[in-house]
Every structure is written in structure tokens, then in C-alpha cells.
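Quick one before lunch.
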Amino acid sequence: MTLAPPTGAAFDGFPRWSEPVEPYAAFPKVTLHDHLDGSLRPETLIELAGVHGVELPYDDPETLASWFTGEVSTPTISHWDEKFGLTTRVMQTEESIARVAREWVIEAAADGVIYGETRWAPEKHILGGLPLAVAVEAVAAGLAEGEAEVSAAGGHIRARQLLCGMRTSPLSFEIARLTASTYGKWGGSVAGFDIAGPEDGFPIRDHLDATTLLHREGIPYTIHTGEADGAHSVWETVHLAHALRLGHGTRVIEDVTLNGRPLSVRTAVKAVAAAREAGLAELVVGKTAQWVIDRRIPLEQCVTSNSKGGVVLGIENHPIDLLRELGFTLTINPDNRGMSKTSISREFRRIEGEFGWGVDEFTTAELAGVEATFLSRPERDALRTELLALIDDFSKVR
Ligand SMILES: [Zn+2]
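Model of the zinc ion complex:
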């Protein structure tokens, strides 16, 4: 079995956001936290902006890509929302939505992804009058096209979509209903639901009608939490909304005390290192964090995104390795390949460089990812078998 990312007419060889020789490009992966509208190829955005009459700040792909990653202006999470506004404005027709979905699959496959869930907010794609369900069907069509193209090029990937309600919008219940009515259609394209958007000041308790509906219907959902807000936000997500996964969940670390004082996400790594250096580092896990550990609720970790978005200052200050040490169930994700200029292969390389993770740790994370997918039990069992066989091959040729 060949493990190199598929090549051929359908591929540029490697994902746009990755260097051509990422050491982990051929390591099989699962992607769970991966925004469709945060991953547009700059070339595609430029082309679609021309078609739809949308003005861009830059019209060459390189500069545009740098603007997205914040190399041109200060990166903050609220600023990113403007950028999402730009990408979603060019995704208002079935054709443009399907194209972006198709390309998302191809780039994911080139990054070594064998199963992926991409998330997007349907309510941001109806500015041109497109019915919500038609937009969902367009994503389903694009994902299926991408799968077929990867398959024709000798690769293999399965792609699903999660529909996002927004914390800032009153439509989350409507989107939950849309999830329920499309769940299982088009070959099971719609795999679940998410709530996204600014966290601080927009509590999840305002969206419990949406999560309760899906909980009762037996439809899985994740929720963005513990990114821009702290431990209490995670508590609401876990204990009021009963999310099956935590989108980021990074600030659950703030429910851990060091020598009696709560950790802060920004200083946790350095504080623990300093305390250990001084010979006194007593870590006590709080109730919410312990619940997340004990129930094995997966954290959708997005290390580069957290660093670029200001959750932590630099990847070296990300608590991912501390979370691993404390027993959390971790998965590795790109969040927004375009806006964070990353891929999962790149995340692997960065985590390896900062924290010394290797094949064993990445295997643990990918197995956790398989278990955390919104696939059925038999599908997860089959995916685990496929993943382990590919990791075995990866290790042999390495
Ligand atoms: Zn996200």
C-alpha cells in the first residue's frame, strides 16, 4: 500500500497551507474541527470574488493569504470574524459552496486525512436567497465530488459536515432543526451540529433549546468552548448543554490549581515549569476538569489557531502537553487551515518541535479522534482498523 498523499490531475500534491515536505504528511489523520469557510484557497477566493463582485483587500494570493493569517494586521478573534464575512460572501450560490466543499476534501486528503468533519454556518450563506436546506445539499454534493476525485486519484477519504449555530444569533434552534431534518440524508453527509462564534458574553445557556432538541433526537453535537472564555463556560457546555466534544476546550486548564491558585491559560506552562524547578508543584484538578477527564470528553485542540487568536502567546505557551499529562482526551485539528495558515501535518510538526511528541503520542491522538467522530460504532471500528494499518505502514517506511 502506498502512503504518499495521492497525486494526479486532481491534486497539487500537498495542501496549500503546508510545506511540500511535511514529515507527517503521510501519517493518517482524522480532522474534527475544521471550518469550511476558514479554509478557502486564496486563488479560489479571488476567483469567486470576481464572479460575485466582492471587493478584496488584496488581489494576489500570497498577500491575501498573509492578510488572512494576520501577518498584515493584528490577529484577534473578532477581527477573524470580519474575514469569515469575506469568505462567506463569495459562498452564496450552490456552485460556489459546492466548489469550496470539493476543494476542502482534496486539500484534506493531501494532508493525510482519511476521515473529516467540516463545519460551517448555513445562516451565513443565504444572503442571496438560497434556502438553508439547498445550501446544505450543495455542501453534501461538493464533499461527495471531492471524495470521488480523491478516489479516482488513488486516495481514500470520507467527508462529513457539521452545521453550526452561532452564539450571537437567535437562529441556533432553527439550525438545530435543520440538522435534524437533514441528518442521514445524502449518504449521511450531515453528521452533527456545533455552536460557534464569540464566546465571551454569549453564553451557551442561551442556546439550550437547540442542544436539548438534538439531545432528544439522538443527534451528536460539539460546542466551541474554553477558547475566549474560561472554566465556567466549559462547565455550561458540559453540564447544561451536554456536548459530546469540546471545540478547543483549552481553558479547561483554568479549572486546575497550582499550589492552591487557579492556572491561567496564558501562563500555565511557564508557571508549572517554574514551580517544578522550585521543587513544589501541586496540581489539583477541579470538578469540571475532572468530569471532562473521567468521561473522556474529547478536546478538539487547535494549537496554531489558539496561538494566532491570542488564547495563548506562542505555541510554546499552549497547555496541550500539560492537558495530556493530566489525562485529558486530546485530538489535533487545524481549526481554519487558511486563516491559521496550517494543516494537521504542520500542527504535528509544531507540537513535535515544542513538546517532543512523536508517533506514539500522535497515534494516541488520532485513535482518540476516531473514537470522537460522529460516526456509528461499526464505522468507527472500521476506521480504527484502517488508521492503525496506515500508521503501521508509515512507521515501516519512515
Ligand atoms: Zn473553530
